[in-house]
Each structure stands twice: as C-alpha cells, then as structure tokens.
Automatic annotation (TrEMBL):
Keywords noted in UniProt: Cell cycle, Cell division, Cell membrane, Membrane
Function statement: Cell division protein that is involved in the assembly of the Z ring. May serve as a membrane anchor for the Z ring.
Cleavable signal peptide: none
UniProt protein name: Cell division protein FtsA
Compartments where found: Cell membrane
Family matches, as SUPFAM superfamilies: Actin-like ATPase domain (SSF53067)
Length: 442
C-alpha cells in the first residue's frame, strides 16, 4: 500500500492528547497502525490556553505513534470541541434563474455560501453548515435535491459555531509542531461516526461523549445530525470534587475515581473503606466508599441533567422526534461504574456504552476499542474519507479531460458519479482559511 492511504487523527483533549495512525484494509474497515498518547498540558475545558505546553504534548504523542507504526506523520485531521461551541438551526432559500435546468452542485453551494454570510457574534466563525432536508418549490422532505427541477430551493441547516481565536490557536499548535492541518472536524461528530451504527442514527439516538474537560452531545434522527452541544464539565470536575471533599491530592483523587468510584451510592456498604497514604510522614487518610460515591453521584447527576436539558431542547419529547435508540455513552468518563444505570434512571431512556469498534478491523487491539479513543478513531475515519473524496475528484477530473478529447458518448456515466463529489465540506474551506491565516501571520 502506498503511504498516502494512511490518515492521522489528532485528538487534543483536556486530559490527554492522542495521535492515531490508521488506514483502510481490503474489507473497507479501519486498521489502526499506531497510537501515541501524552498527558495534555495547556488545554482547559477543551480550549488551548497554553500554546507551548500543547505543542510539546502534541509532539510527544506524535513521536510515540510514529514509533509504533514506523510511519512518518505529516498531515493530521484534528478535532475541535470546547466550551465555545454552540449550534443553531437556520433555514434559507435561493431563487434559481433558470428552472428549466436541473438542480446541481453549484445551486447547493450557492445556498450554503449564503448561510455562511449569517452574521455571528463578534469573534465567532461558522464551523459546519450541515443541510438537513431540502424543499423544492414548497415540496418538503427532500433529502437529495440534485437532478430535480425547481425554481425555489430552500433548506433547513444545522449550523455549528465556534470562536475564531480558539480554532486559530489549534492551527498554530499544529503548525508549530511541524505538522500540516489536513482537516478540522467537530469532535462530537467524529465520536459519533466511530461509535454509532447506521440503524441507531436512523432510529434516533443521543451520543454523550464524557471527556476530561467537556461533555459533548450529538443527536441524530432519520440519519441526520439534529443537534450538537458542548457542556463545559467532564471527568475533571468529578476528580476536583473528590480532591476537595476528601482533602487529598489530585493524583490520588483520580485513582480513587477510576479504581473504586461508582455513580450509584446505594451499591457500597457502609463499612467499605480505602486507606490513602498521607503526605510526607502524615497519617494515612481513611475514606469510605459510600462517601466517595456520594461525591461522584452528585456531580454526575449535574452533568447528565444538563445534557438531558439539551436533548429536550432538540425536542425529544415530541412523538415525531423521539430517540428510539436512546442514549450511547462514550469517552473516558463513560467507564465510571454504574453510570449506565444512573443515566437510564435520570432520563428514562435506553442506554449503552459505546465502543469505537463499529468500523475497526476485526483484529484490532483491545485497548484501541476503548471509549477513551472514540474521538481519535473518528478523526482517523474522517481523514480517510477526506482522502477518498480527493481521489474521486482527481479521477473525475481525469475522466472529464479524457472525455473532452473523445466524443461525448460516455456522458451519462459521469452524471451518475456526480453526488460523490458531494459538497466540499465547509470544514475543508475553513481548514483552508485557517491555513491561509497562519501562512500570512508568519
């Protein structure tokens, strides 16, 4: 296999940075060649707040992945999340000059570019514009308008917005780490691609990705993304609370949470106690597991309730918008004991833990299929998809050039292939803008 078939996902998280190298195998599954992981210094609640430290962490993760895969990394697909992300619904329309011609790519681009002109708050930039369904001359619920006739083309859009400065800072970190930015993707979308099945997206599902600094939500229904939100709390605040509540240091709090923590206090007997070594010659501390679980429970309930508010904002309580597949939990925070039961109890929705093995090759390493790596796996998949699109476009250009030389007989062939080139993602355009900005800033 030539080298250009590999793709690298870079998940810049609050607690860890993961670089993951993958490629498609002959069964169209993703094969992970190497993973590097470093402690994330300089990221707070999903937003870079110390460039120098973030660069060091990125380089460390990248070197580790390169060593594991014996591949050199040049381009990366990076995830963007953080507390500055918000999403809104917007509908827009264009009137076509000539309704005798079928609707094509350029009409949709025109419509999307119009949405890009929406006036945002100062310092905000549109990251994704995702068309949901189209209307042509008032006929609703059209999912693929290309090839149809009509004068007025309108669509509902899911628009995701984020802070320009945060996006540029990420670009800066990547460039300074000696890497090229191949693409930017919204992290909840990346995780969703790695963890959810097509059936779940059809039936209606809410993906909750509990990370270190933020909890991301993505809601799908009828196979289309309907709502995204980022809640600025994650596993870190649970650790903080344990630290404060038990007067111990952060490292001990984190270990307690992972080893003995539970989101359901009723599970622990009163006499279960953990002893923690004191600092430098001080007495060890004794902590009851019941208290530990109470602390965790209080904070987890708060996080889940905020997410549930967002699920209701999407409209889960309307019959037509019901999420039949319920909730899927992923991310490092989803490994907390009895979390699934608690989420079901609070929301009354079916819940499962999501592992990113939906598209991974069968012989993948156990560790990689951990919820911890959901975002990274999703970013690798996204990079691979981007490369495929590029290859299809290159092939199409060749086909078109060849055709120009020959007669026009084979015309229908190309028309069939059209939709693959599908809307050059706004993220691609955004990536180019970030690249341009960085080149000019040098």
């Amino acid at each position: 296999m030539e080298n250009n078939n590999i793709s690298v996902g870079l998940d810049i998280g609050t607690t860890k940075i993961v670089a993951m190298i993958g490629r498609k195998n002959e069964y169209d599954k993703v094969e992970i060649l190497g993973v590097g992981k470093s402690k994330s210094m300089g990221v707070h609640r999903g937003v870079v707040n110390n460039i120098t430290q973030t660069i060091q962490s990125i380089q460390q993760a990248v070197q580790e992945a390169e060593a594991a895969a014996s591949e050199k990394i040049t381009d990366v697909t990076v995830g963007i999340a953080g507390q500055h992300i918000r999403s809104l619904q917007h509908s827009d329309y264009i009137t076509r000059a000539n309704s005798e011609m079928v609707i094509d790519e350029s009409d949709i681009d025109r419509l999307i570019n119009q949405v890009h002109k929406l006036v945002m708050l100062p310092g905000e930039e549109i990251i994704h514009v995702l068309p949901q369904e189209f209307k042509i001359d008032g006929q609703a619920e059209i999912t693929e308008p290309i090839g149809m006739y009509g004068g007025r083309l309108e669509a509902n859009f899911h628009v995701v917005v984020g802070q320009v400065s945060s996006i540029r800072n990420i670009g800066r970190c990547i460039k300074s780490s000696g890497l090229e930015l191949e693409g930017i993707t919204l992290e909840p979308l990346a995780s969703a691609n790695a963890v959810l099945s097509r059936e779940e997206k059809e039936a209606g599902v809410a993906l909750i990705d509990i990370g270190g600094g933020t909890t991301d939500l993505a809601v799908f229904k009828d196979g289309i993304i309907r709502h995204t939100a980022v809640i600025p709390f994650g596993g870190n605040v649970i650790t903080e609370d344990i630290k404060e509540g038990c007067s111990i240091i952060e490292k001990q709090a984190e270990l307690l949470k992972i080893k003995f923590g539970s989101a359901w206090p009723g599970e622990n007997k009163d006499n279960e106690i953990v002893s923690i070594p004191g600092l430098r010659g001080r007495e060890p501390k004794e902590i009851t597991l019941k208290n530990l679980s109470k602390i965790i429970h209080a904070r987890v309930v708060e996080i889940i309730e905020q997410v549930y508010v967002e699920i209701k904002n999407y409209g889960h309580e309307e019959q037509k918008k019901k999420l039949i597949a319920g909730i899927v939990l992923t991310g490092g925070g989803s490994q907390l004991k009895h979390l699934k039961q608690l989420v079901e109890y609070i929301t009354g929705m079916d819940t499962r833990i999501g592992y990113p093995n939906e598209h991974l090759a069968g012989d993948s390493d156990e560790d990689i299929a951990s919820p911890l790596f959901a975002t990274a796996v999703g970013l690798v998949m996204d990079g691979l998809k981007r490369q495929e699109r590029k290859r299809v476009e290159d092939v199409e250009e060749m086909v078109i050039e060849n055709q120009a030389e020959q007669t026009m007989e084979a015309q229908p062939e190309v028309v069939v292939e059209e939709p693959i080139k599908e809307r050059r993602s706004f993220l691609d355009k955004l990536t180019e803008r970030v690249k341009e900005f960085l080149d000019n800033a040098e």
